[in-house]
Amino acid sequence: MKYLLDTHIWHRAIDDAKRAQEPLSPAVLRLIKDEPEQLAVCDISLLELARHLADSGNPESVCAAIITHGSAPLRVLPISPAIAVRSYALDWPKKGGSAQHRDPADRLIVATAMLHGLVLVTEDGEMHHRAPHWHLPVLK
């Protein structure tokens, strides 16, 4: 395993309609096609995707089927005590400001990538902005 998919990337990777609206980069498409065994998601991404799918009007059974099918080829990484602590301790000022980025899911995803030594696959501007400070490799 080499790469951790951010929730938004994972959602688009498994949802043709979403991907048609918001195409993935050629590098990410190649990674998903050629190296699926190298991909992981943080377990918080399951919750985030369930919320996105339910908010789009999908019934519970459809949400469950999409998440089960979409996570099957991936490794789902659990939140450990070390990840929880790193997540909370991240120095993450928002772009252009001093206030800290407080989204717990984003923090858990970043901490998971850091502690597992993975490349984070994301298009999130806040993550890209701060990644060099953390020495976190990011693929867009």
Brief account:
The protein has 140 residues and is an alpha/beta fold.
What can you tell me about this protein's structure?
The protein is of the alpha/beta class and 140 residues long. The protein has one domain (3-139): Rossmann fold (3-Layer(aba) Sandwich). The protein is built from eight helices and five strands; from the N terminus they run βαααβααβααβαβ. It has helices at 7-14, 16-21, 26-34, 44-55, 60-71, 81-89, 104-116, 125-134; strands at residues 3-5, 39-42, 75-77, 119-121, 138-139. A five-stranded parallel sheet has the order 3-2-1-4-5, sandwiched between helices. The chain is globular. It starts with a strand and ends with a strand. 31% of the residues are buried. The mean pLDDT is 94.
- By DSSP (H or I, 4+ residues per run), the number of helices equals 8
Envelope shape: globular
Q: In percent, how much strand structure appears in the residues? A: 5-15%
**Would you give the CATH topology?**
Rossmann fold
Whole-Å distance between the termini? 18 Å
The tally of strands reads 5
| CATH architectural grouping | 3-Layer(aba) Sandwich
List the uncertain runs. Answer: none
Helix content: 55-70%
Mean pLDDT: 94
Architecture blueprint of SSEs:
Blueprint: E1 3-5, H1 7-14, H2 16-21, H3 26-34, E2 39-42, H4 44-55, H5 60-71, E3 75-77, H6 81-89, H7 104-116, E4 119-121, H8 125-134, E5 138-139
Parallel strand pairs: 1-2, 1-4, 2-3, 4-5
Helix pairs in contact: 1-4, 4-5, 6-7
Key features?
140 residues; alpha/beta; Rossmann fold; five-stranded parallel beta sheet; globular
